[in-house]
Structures are given as structure tokens and as C-alpha cells.
Amino acid sequence: MTEPVVCTTVAQLREEVAARTAAGAESVGLLPTMGALHAGHLQIARRTRAENDVAVVSVFVNPLQFGPGEDFESYPRQLEQDVRLLAQERVDLVFAPSVEEMYPGGTPVVSVTSGAAGAVLEGATRPGHFDGALTVVNKLLTIVDPGPRIPFRAYFGEKDAQQLLLMQRMVRDFNHRVEIRPVPIVRSEQGLALSSRNQYLSPEQAGHALVLNATLRALAGGELTLDEARRRVAAEPEVSLDYLVTVDPDTLAVTEPRPGALALVAAWVGPTRLIDNMRIPA
Amino acid sequence: MTEPVVCTTVAQLREEVAARTAAGAESVGLLPTMGALHAGHLQIARRTRAENDVAVVSVFVNPLQFGPGEDFESYPRQLEQDVRLLAQERVDLVFAPSVEEMYPGGTPVVSVTSGAAGAVLEGATRPGHFDGALTVVNKLLTIVDPGPRIPFRAYFGEKDAQQLLLMQRMVRDFNHRVEIRPVPIVRSEQGLALSSRNQYLSPEQAGHALVLNATLRALAGGELTLDEARRRVAAEPEVSLDYLVTVDPDTLAVTEPRPGALALVAAWVGPTRLIDNMRIPA
């Protein structure tokens, strides 16, 4: 098992990528994360490793994508453990920059915005969240980009459906050379979508959180109407529903729960906000 | 004299750049323009040619940087003449995409914003202008970028001082690999800063427009106070002053007319908006 090289500066990461492509590596894959890696991340890391000659995982808790009342300060940071886990997956490079390295001098003057598409659904409760996430991923894509002759892929989970769609739009709208590869949701045996924030759940809350996936399955299976599904989530103890909607998976426009539509749910379980989604079978 | 290759698609331009670097070209220079090339552009094109193995000039009238009441429809378009002029300067590649090629499906969902820094000075009278200019240049930089091992430069005139500053910030904030090379203002013999919009001036208006440069010179030479300078511009027939300020050249924050400061002027001459600027000698 080879330890990944941990790069803390943009220059160092670029040198490491360039050295590997100069030595014959023919593809580069990037998995952007905020660390606190769980089995969901590791499955994507495994895929990044398998599909690319150079596997890069970034670990950066991005202040721009946290709102004022959110958990930026308390978000779990465990770089040593993350690096150990990524070593087991034979990742080549870990990019773990400081906030000052990513945003020298503070908040960037020029940044990325997703306008109206980033202000609905998750964006409605988290103003600025998607702009922050797009701003940092835009930088990561430019930093890691190995150049015209080397295929470059970036991996995003389908769990953050709105984020995935906006990343795909950014790649197209900004002419990034990267190919976005979506990765299916990883779930616990009981169906809970894996998330770093699941750490915040008490065992009892983790039990209540199962209602999200169970309800999506019932909705996707046609056993519940949208209204019944909403009532079922809302009736679960300690669970407070934010939204449960079905949307067009390409545009995120709200639509009927028809075959092919994407059902999206967001809820607080105790003080912890969770999201999940599921396609309605075509 | 070799004709430049005129590329109308992103893919074609990328292929042409990649073919040249694969054949040994060791640097690439980009001059972004909206066409209607005048002697000011051509001087920058000459420098782009002299300093790079591959010289690229983009000619694209970018709808995003025009406001609702502005001259997008009537902005001069003369690609054939532009290509002839660029051939004389031995430019290798002209990138002249359609609006649909740059913005497939219409206005981009994800775009670039300069926030407060783009809302003052020129931005105050032209809401959205800088965001539009940044959005298209961000795309051009990513499209032309020849990859890690090839030095890449982009050329911007100092005439659009605020634009130059914001482009430099974007390159830093987005980690673009390009080096921005600023190019001094080119002037007519009488001192008028060259601009495509000078085409709109009657001979008489062109005469009145000389007050801008003459006043900046007097201000920079300490012959006029800021208030006297403003009155002088405002007193010129057919000239309506928008702003005449001195700013810190690194931040655009308004400052006293002290040595090293940048004096910026914007005025309408008849219906035509003109800008100019000059450093106060240190």
C-alpha cells in the first residue's frame, strides 16, 4: 500500500499531476470532497482509482458554501484518517489546501453564480450554497486539468442531485474539458443515504431518518401519492419536512410524479438536515 | 502573407491550437476582441504575434456584456475586413464563433460575477456589463488554454482599466494558468484614445472628445484640481460628464489625486459613451 502524496498548495498539486502525465499517465480523475470520508466517498474513490491512471481526491471544507447559521466551524475535519482511508483505495494524490491557499486575501472578488437555478430547492434554504460550491469546484477543475491530450474526469454523487446538475451546467457553460461522471447513491443496509452529517444523528434519530428513503421508495413504487408521501415524512417523530417534490431530472423544473421524474426530499432530523432522492422508474 | 485560419467552433479552435503545440509551438497568446478592429487592436495583435509562437485573436460581439438600451444590434461587424487586417499582422488563428456556439441554448445557467467591484464606475452605468465580459473571457481562456507545459498569455488594453483589473482578479480567483499582459493605451495624434465607438463620432464631436485626454493630462500634471478638471470636461460643447475620479490602481477604491493614482474619466460625446484614463506620475 503506497501512501498518497498530500499536496497543500496549488503549485505542488500541479507539479505532481504534470510529473505523472509526463511519465506516461494517460488519464486523470478528480473526486472533490470536504473530507470526513465515509463508505459513500470511498466507493467513489475506488471508481476514480479504477477508471484513471492518476486518482486525485481533494479534501477542503469550503467556507463559501456554508451559510451564516450553518456548521462550517463544527464540520468534521479528520485529514489523517481521510488520508489513511484513501491510501487503502490506492489514491495517488490528496489535495488538502488551507483556506488561505484557496482564497488568498479572503473572499474572492470574482466568483461563480448559478442565478435562479441555484436559488430553488436546496438553494431556497441555503442561500449562496451552490454559488460557493460552484466557485470552489471551478477552481479545482482548473487546478487539476491535465491539459488537452489527457482525458480528465470528475466524480459527483447523485445524492446531491441539484449540485450534480449545476456542476454539469457549469462544465458546459464554462467549456471545462472535464467529463462529469455521476455516481449512484450509496446507502446503509437499512436504506439511509450515506452522508458526513449522519455522524450528527443519535441512534434513535438514525432510525427516524429511515423514513426518507422508505417514503421515496413507496412514492417511486406508486404506493403513495405525493401528498400522502409528504404526510408520512412529516408524521415521523423528530423529523421536520422541508420539501418533497418531483422534478424533471435535466432542468430541475417541478413536474408530476411521472415515470422518469426525480423525487427529491429534504428534511431536518433533530437539528440535522438530510437529503435524498430517487428516480421514478420509467 | 499567410491567411489566418478562421475557426468558428470551439472544437476546431482547440484542434488548431493542439496541432501547433504538438508540432513544437512553445507559447500561445490570445487577444480577445469584439472585432471592428482599429489601430489600437492591431498594435496589441502585433505584440501578441511578437511574443508568442501561436497568436490567436477572438472576434466575438458578446451579447452578455451589452445592456438592454445599448448598441448590441448596431455594434459594427466586419469580420472579412478584420481577418484581412489580422493577416497583415501574421496572426495564426482567428476565433469567430456564433452566439449559439458560445451560448448553446441561450443565456448560460452558470456564469461569472464580479459583485461589488463590477457595480461601481463603468459598472454603475452599465449593470451586468463586467459580469458579461468576465463570463465570455473565462470561456475563451479555458477554450484556448494550451495546457500545463505551454506558456499562455492574454492581452488586455489599459484603456478599459476596470475591465483589466477585474480580468486580473478573475485569473487569480479562478486559478487560470494564463498570464495577463496589459497593453498601454493607443491614441490618435491629437490624443484621443482609440476605440471602436469613435466610428460613431462626427468630425466635430471627435474634436470635442479631445477634452477628455487634455483634461487628464492637465490633472496628471497638477495644473488642475479634480473639481476644475470636472468643470472643464462638463463645459465642452456636446460633452456630458459621467465621472472623473482618481482611484487606487490595484483596488479601484476612490482616492485623492495623489502620485501613482489612476485618473479615470467617462463621458458621453453626443450619444457616444467614451472612457479614458491616465496614471498620475509617481
Describe the structure.
2 copies of one chain form a homodimer. With 282 residues, chain A is α/β, with parallel strands linked by helices. Chain A has 2 domains: 5-183, HUPs (Rossmann fold), CATH 3.40.50.620; 196-276, Pantoate-beta-alanine ligase, C-terminal domain (Pantoate--beta-alanine Ligase, Chain: A,domain 2), CATH 3.30.1300.10. The first copy, chain A, is 36% helix and 20% strand. Chain A has helices at residues 10-22, 39-51, 79-88, 99-102, 122-125, 129-144, 161-173, 203-220, 226-235, and strands at residues 5-7, 28-33, 54-59, 93-95, 111-113, 152-157, 179-183, 239-247, 262-269, 272-279. Chain A starts with a strand and ends with a strand. Chain A binds chain B through residues 10, 14, 17-18, 21, 104, 108-115, 117, 134, 138-139, 142-143, 145-149, 166, 169-170, 172-177, and chain B through 10, 14, 17-18, 21, 104, 108-115, 117, 134, 138-139, 142-143, 145-149, 166, 169-170, 172-177. Strand 5 of chain A pairs antiparallel with strand 5 of chain B.
**How would you spell out the order of helices and strands of chain A?**
EHEHEHEHEHHEHEHHEEE
CATH topology of the largest domain in chain A: Rossmann fold
Radius of gyration of chain A: 19 Å
For the biggest β-sheet of chain A, the strand order reads: 1-4-3-2-6-7
Beta-strand percent range of chain A = 15-25%
Point out poorly predicted stretches of chain A.
Answer: none
InterPro entries (chains A, B): Pantoate_ligase (IPR003721), Pantoate_ligase_C (IPR042176), Rossmann-like_a/b/a_fold (IPR014729)
Function (chains A, B): Catalyzes the condensation of pantoate with beta-alanine in an ATP-dependent reaction via a pantoyl-adenylate intermediate.
Organism (chains A, B): Kocuria varians
Protein name (chains A, B): Pantothenate synthetase
